Amino acid sequence: MARLSLVSLVCLALALQLATVGHALAQESTLSSADAAYERGALLEASRLYEAALREGGHERDALIRIHLRLGISSIARRQELGARAHFRAALALDHALVLPEELTASRRAELEALRPTQSLALVLEAPDELPRGEDATVEVRVTGDRELVRTIEVSLGSRTESLPASGGAVSMHLDSEEARLDAVALDEHGGRLARAQRTVRAVELVVPSSEPTTVPTESTPSVGAEPPDGLTRTPETQTEALAPTVESGLACTAGSHRHADTCVPDLADPPPAPRPWFEEPLVWGTVIGVVVGGATAGAVGYLVTEPPGYLLLAPELR
Question: What pLDDT shows up at residue 128?
């Protein structure tokens, strides 16, 4: 029974594959027949076959440009103005640098040139190159150019496919394999591939930061009298220097100490004032002034005593 089930599955897979190949061959056959009819000048037959090829769908961008361009020329030849404008607009939207046929009249060429957009239809993928494995990530698709032909946008990553409207947008996707191709395709109403954007993305493990606090080791200050950790004997001076508290840069020491080489050192007492020179002593100048004043006074008195009577300061007594 199990063997019959396996055989049935294999037959079903082969049938699906053959149907896909047959559809592709039919598309190619219809498009090739249309090209052959157009090249030999059978425009009516070519138009019928090109329309059938469009309805079959699944054509790539280059084939769609050729189909719309030749349908536009056939529509002008059959005087179908609305059809001609629609097909030429579609061809110019897919390739804004498309060269128009030389057999068109000047007035017709000017009319069609007015339909030419400033840029071709394109898709822009905005997604990271690396996605967390198994985690949802946002993929954004933007549409540039004339999107009149676009009916839907399919975004696929690995085995998962999502759909977006013709205007584009964002979709949430995740990657389970190591690497996969991110593919966005703009489709017309028949499934023709109007524009495509691709990118290869890789899966990465999501690293969760640890919630444990980080412990910073601190140095302990040795107590007075404790043995040095290196086993050396220190003198009182080096012991005092070793036990001087370390301060962080920018912090002030306590009163009675000052910073020196990132440590607090006790302030020393003010040095005694230097002795003044002998000529700045007040006693010396007092003695000198006293001697000068005394000598001047004694000289004046002696002069008055020895001077002749006519020059006495006192008036003579009258008799």
Answer: 85
Class of domain 122-204: mainly beta
Sign of CA dihedral 122, 124, 130, 134: negative
Q: Which of 74, 80, 91, 78 minimizes the C-alpha distance to 39?
A: 74
Domain coordinates of the chain in residue numbers?
16-113, 122-204
Q: Which two tokens stand for residue 194?
A: 């109007």
Query: Cβ(55)–Cβ(30) under 8 Å?
Result: no
- Write the pLDDT tens digit of every residue in 87-121: 999 999 999 999 999 888 999 999 999 999 999 99
More confident: 35 or 158: 35
Helix (H, G, I), strand (E, B) or coil at 50: helix
Burial class (CB in 10 A: 0-12, 13-18, 19+), 230: exposed
C-alpha radius of gyration, the chain, whole number: 55
> Regarding the domain with residue range 16-113, which homologous superfamily does it belong to in the CATH classification?
Tetratricopeptide repeat domain (1.25.40.10)
3-state secondary structure of 123: strand
pLDDT of 180 higher than 80: yes
